[in-house]
Structures are given as structure tokens and as C-alpha cells.
Amino acid sequence: EGQREQELVKYYLSRDRAYDVKYSDIAVRLRERLGFTGSKLISAADRLAQILHEKGIKVWR
Question: How would you label 9-37 residue by residue, b for 16+ Cβ within 10 Å and e otherwise?
Fold first, then answer.
């Protein structure tokens, strides 16, 4: 799981730095690629959104 989450971080970082990401897009990618649902999906999406924010990508809810 951790490695696949890191792949998603790399995916977002490989895009244009000024690109804004929707929180719902993060959740959809986690559900589709990792099969996360429920509280696991929410906590993983929150964690990924925080990582992206720290890397300078705006995350919109």
C-alpha cells in the first residue's frame, strides 16, 4: 500500500506544479487503484492531500 500511495504522489508531482487537484479526484484514484473504501479511503485521501499540499500542490475540497 505505501509504495502504491507513493506512486500516486509521484503521479501528481509529475504534472504541472501549478495544477490544482480536487480532493474527490484523489479519493477516486485511491479507490480505483488500491481498492480503498470507507474510513480507510478517507484517511488515505486525507494523508495524500496533506502530502501534496506540503509539496506545493493546491488541493480543493
Answer: eeebeeeeeeeebeeeebbebbeeebebe
